[in-house]
């Protein structure tokens, strides 16, 4: 769903994001992926909500969201990713939890763990949310080799006013936590 669609039909996603925010409180986490980018004002297609967090927050998700669990949070490793991973379904919205998420680059080297520690706080429709900064999103998409998404994000960032004269922090009305 695009930002415009989110503006028109956002109740479900906003309710889910607010529930996540309320339950996770000040634990170390951030909304990432297209959901995080939409919250930062970029026009992206959003179908689910991805959360990066530290190991403790990922494991706490079992108790915080037990009525929504679709897949228990546990350490998982694939050919390309490793993290404390689990799935939730809240009001029909799929939410994926990635604790200490790492990506294997094309040289066979694991990335640093993404845990939400570089999060910024943004306001969307009067609510505050922790999100992964767009610069970190670009890094993640590059590590995953998702170049079309990488370039779309760069274009969307370039459309925000006035990009050339503001810092990323000012651009997204966020503060680094």
What report would you give on this structure?
The chain is of the alpha+beta class. The chain has a single domain (3-171), classed as 2-Layer Sandwich (Beta Polymerase, domain 2), CATH 3.30.460. It is 37% helix and 28% strand. The strands form two sheets. A five-stranded mixed sheet has the order 1-2-5-4-3. Strands 6-7 form a two-stranded antiparallel sheet. Residues 161-177 have low confidence and may be disordered.
Short summary:
With 177 residues, the protein is an alpha+beta fold. The protein has helices at residues 3-8, 11-24, 33-39, 55-64, 134-144, 147-159, 168-171; strands at 29-32, 49-53, 69-77, 81-90, 93-103, 120-124, 127-131. Strands 1-2-5-4-3 form a 5-stranded mixed sheet. It has a two-stranded antiparallel sheet with strand order 6-7.
């Amino acid at each position: 769903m695009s930002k415009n669609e989110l503006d028109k039909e956002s109740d479900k996603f906003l309710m889910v994001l607010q529930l996540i925010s309320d339950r996770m409180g000040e634990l170390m986490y951030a909304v990432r992926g297209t959901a995080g980018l939409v919250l930062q004002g970029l026009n992206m297609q959003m179908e689910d909500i991805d959360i990066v967090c530290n190991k403790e927050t990922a494991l706490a998700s079992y108790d915080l969201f037990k009525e929504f669990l679709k897949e228990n949070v546990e350490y998982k490793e694939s050919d390309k990713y490793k993290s404390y991973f689990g799935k939730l379904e809240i009001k029909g919205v799929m939410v994926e939890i990635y604790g200490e998420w790492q990506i294997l680059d094309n040289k066979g080297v694991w990335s640093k763990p993404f845990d939400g520690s570089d999060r910024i706080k943004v306001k969307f429709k009067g609510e505050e949310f922790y999100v992964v900064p767009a610069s970190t999103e670009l890094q993640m998409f590059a590590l995953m080799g998702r170049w079309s998404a990488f370039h779309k994000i760069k274009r969307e960032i370039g459309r925000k006013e006035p990009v050339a004269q503001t810092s990323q922090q000012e651009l997204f009305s966020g503060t680094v936590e």
